[in-house]
Amino acid sequence: MNYARPDIQAMTGYTPGEQPKGTKVIKLNTNENPYPASAKVAEAIGRAAQAGLQRYPDASASAFRLRAGEVLGVDPNWILCGNGSDDILTIATRTFVGENDAVRYATPSYVLYKTLAEIQGAVQDVVRYEADWTLGFEFAAPAERLRLAYLANPNSPSGTVLAPGEVAAIADALPCPLLVDEAYVDFADANCLDLVRSNERVMVSRTLSKSYALAGLRFGYVVAQPVLIEQMAKVKDSYNCDALSIAGATAAIDDQQWLAENVAKVRATRARLAAALGELGFAVTDSQANFVWAVHPTIAHEELYLALKEQGVLVRYMRYDHWGDGLRVSVGTDAQIDALLALLAPMVSRR
Ligand code: PMP
Question: Which sequence positions carry the modification called N6-(pyridoxal phosphate)lysine (predicted)?
Answer without folding.
Answer: 210
